[in-house]
Amino acid sequence: MKLTSLFSAAIGAAVLMSATSALAVTIGFSQVGDEGDWRPAFSRDMQAEAKKEGIDLKFADAQGKEEAQLTAVRSFIAQKVDAIIIAPVVVTGWDQVLREAKRANIPVFLADRDVDVTDKSLYVTRISADFNLEGKLAGAWLAQASKGNCNIVELQGTTGAAPAIERKKGFEAIISNFPNMKIIKTQSGDFTTDGGKKVMEAFIKSTDNLKGVCASFAHNDNMQLGAIQAMKEAGLKPGKDVLMVSVDYVPAMKTELAKGEANASVELRSAIGKYIYPVVLNYLKDKKPLPKWVVIPSDLHTAATPGN
Amino acid sequence: MKSFSPPLKISTPRAAPRLLWPLVALALIFAVDGIISPHFFAIRIVEGRLFGNLVDIVYRATPIAIVALGMAIVIGTKGIDLSVGAIIAIVGATLDWRIHMGDPHLLALAIALAAGVACGLWNGLLVAVLDIQPIIATLILMVSGRGVGLMINLIYGGSDPSFESPLLQGLSTGHIGLIPTRILVGIGLWIALWALVRRTALGLFLEAVGANPKAAELAGVEARAIKWAAYVISGFMAAAAGVILTADTHTSDPVSIGLYSELDAILAVVIGGGSLNGGRIYLLGAVLGAVVIQALTTSILTSGLPPEYNLVVKAGVVLVVLLLQSARTRAAVARLATGRKR
């Protein structure tokens, strides 16, 4: 860990450059770090898309540290980049450095996560997916698939995490329109395969083999993958006995959808450079104020053969 | 070895009261379960194996019990091994990597277990040879191990680390007759370790080193080698648990697999009557402690309690169990109950 962080810090400090052309738009991108599967894919896509758009991208990896991120943003300001994109490590503590960017006349865009600043004019807009919408899409698919009659077991993400809270809210907002749809069991599986499996095992016992349960809604694919294993080990047929809907669309879930052991997954895109850069480039051209949140559309993928 | 005499009390004269309190805790947890859900104790046969909450508790407690057995050995030498969770992650990543490289699964299993032993050798080197305090020495692997696991995943791309293996999943989630295989594996490891500790002189040496390393050394015990052996045993046991957990989820997820298992294992040893002061090894207690922890977890999951309360309830019950174990608390409660003053 020590070695890798030193190594990455060295890379981050050097601030990688891709294409260098005097006329190209220069954008500084401060990324959170490289945790999980999703974020490294996001970083790779941002670099690849920048090359395609002919953008001179200065990429800085903050290794999950707020102070490294502030240093990176300040170095972008000193280098007089045309625009700064920040995927913030934390929501607070941004007022000062964003004011410095504003004084230098460099527009700041937020990607993925939000910041908490008193003066919203300090950034142009936030470009990200909508967790709430993901929950709604999952709920809408299930309402249609079950024709509005469904007892649901829910695998929540890490308690208190924004995606868990918002996906739950969005899902509940939809199913509350259907009097015969309700969540009968809900527990946290901590966004992990292991957690999802353990929770589903407990649900199977406490509902007498999921008797009367029509669907499993998981806040991410990993937990759903664990739930699928737990159901198979209990002699149940996930995707047939119980509808399986979740969020992320990771590679392993694609396989499950193809096998018909899962029914639907809402995609959390990692290839979002093609949504972010046009917004930034257009703003640099016409300086037209934007709404404070530009939503990246979510896609819902379903099994080749629908369940039931 | 004639000159060597045990430095401390004779082995387990008061085994019964030591095991009484975790058993009382288990009984209390089950009593609450019985009240909340009447079907809690139902056991059926599904897919050719025993199926029910009680089976789940033993089934899920097995990996933690295996880790706790190794931890009990280390704690017996007055050490501690904070790296077991990280070793689980490294072993899982190694196993998955070798399978993706096309190794025969038995060989992949052997390499994964060897990775755990290597981690134990490293910890032992720091503690026994370089004389670094155990909490610091094992902290190094604890904070770096999961990063090592992620790097192993990256060797083969790692974007889809899921795998299928009849051999490994047979060991983890399969069953022999009605009994889940992992429970048999756990019992096998327990018996092997018990024989090693109680049927050879090793147990005596381990406890001697834990109780008083200087005295043990003067009495002719190779304290350095004995301590080293303890960490290797702990690394091997963590590796066995890592194989079971990784095969269970069919994937390598170094960030989350076995997260906080070092804390659960230490807690299991303590609930089972072990003392961090070292000098004693209670294998049965450690197993019982792991079962108590898992009984609590399974009960919370089946109770329908909102997930926000999970950790608070767990902390509360653990506190009660530890208070039950404290002779001083029991004396105070007894005084209050009889209304006598000091």
Set down the secondary structure blueprint.
The complex is a heterodimer of chains A (308) and B (342).
Chain A: H1 2-14, E1 16-17, E2 26-31, H2 38-53, E3 56-61, H3 66-78, E4 83-86, H4 95-103, E5 108-111, E6 125-129, H5 131-145, E7 150-156, H6 162-175, E8 181-188, H7 193-206, E9 215-218, H8 221-233, E10 243-248, H9 251-259, E11 264-267, H10 273-286, E12 293-296, E13 299-302
Parallel strand pairs in A: 2-3, 2-4, 4-5, 5-6, 6-12, 7-8, 7-9, 9-10, 10-11
Antiparallel strand pairs in A: 1-3, 11-13
Helix pairs in contact in A: 5-6, 7-8
Chain B: H1 15-36, E1 43-46, E2 49-52, H2 53-76, H3 84-100, H4 105-129, H5 134-155, H6 166-173, E3 175-176, E4 179-180, H7 181-198, H8 202-211, H9 213-218, H10 223-249, H11 261-271, H12 283-303, H13 310-325, H14 327-338
Antiparallel strand pairs in B: 1-2, 3-4
Q: Secondary-structure element order of chain A, as H and E?
A: HEEHEHEHEEHEHEHEHEHEHEE
CATH-scheme architecture of chain B: Orthogonal Bundle
Radius of gyration of chain B: 21 Å
Question: What shape does the CA trace of chain A take?
Answer: elongated
The assembly state of the depicted protein chains is heterodimer
Concise account of the structure shown:
Chain A has 308 residues and is an alpha/beta fold. Chain A has 2 domains: 2-123, Response regulator (Rossmann fold); 131-268, Response regulator (Rossmann fold), CATH 3.40.50. Chain A has helices at 2-14, 38-53, 66-78, 95-103, 131-145, 162-175, 193-206, 221-233, 251-259, 273-286; strands spanning 16-17, 26-31, 56-61, 83-86, 108-111, 125-129, 150-156, 181-188, 215-218, 243-248, 264-267, 293-296, 299-302.
What does this structure look like?
- The complex is a heterodimer of chains A (308) and B (342).
- With 308 residues, chain A is an alpha/beta fold.
- Chain A folds into 2 domains: 2-123, Rossmann fold, CATH 3.40.50; 131-268, Response regulator (Rossmann fold, 3-Layer(aba) Sandwich).
- Helix content of chain A is 42%, strand content 21%.
- Chain A is built from 10 helices and 13 strands.
- Chain A has helices at 2-14, 38-53, 66-78, 95-103, 131-145, 162-175, 193-206, 221-233, 251-259, 273-286; strands spanning 16-17, 26-31, 56-61, 83-86, 108-111, 125-129, 150-156, 181-188, 215-218, 243-248, 264-267, 293-296, 299-302.
- In chain A, the strands form 2 sheets. Chain A has a 7-stranded mixed beta sheet with strand order 1-3-2-4-5-6-12, sandwiched between helices. Chain A has a 6-stranded mixed beta sheet with strand order 8-7-9-10-11-13, with helices on both faces.
- In chain A, helix 6 links the parallel strand 7 and strand 8.
- In chain A, helix 7 (193-206) packs across helix 8 (221-233).
- Chain A is elongated, with a radius of gyration of 22 Å.
- In chain B, helix 2 crosses helix 8 (202-211) and helix 3 (84-100) runs antiparallel to helix 4.
- In chain B, strands 1-2 form a two-stranded antiparallel ribbon. Chain B has a two-stranded antiparallel sheet with strand order 3-4.
- The longest helix of chain B has 27 residues, at 223-249.
- In chain B, a hairpin with a 2-residue loop joins strand 3 (175-176) and strand 4 (179-180).
- With 342 residues, chain B is mainly alpha-helical.
- The N and C termini of chain B lie far apart (49 Å).
- Chain B has a single domain (15-31, 50-338), classed as ABC transporter involved in vitamin B12 uptake, BtuC (Orthogonal Bundle).
- Chain B is built from 14 helices and 4 strands.
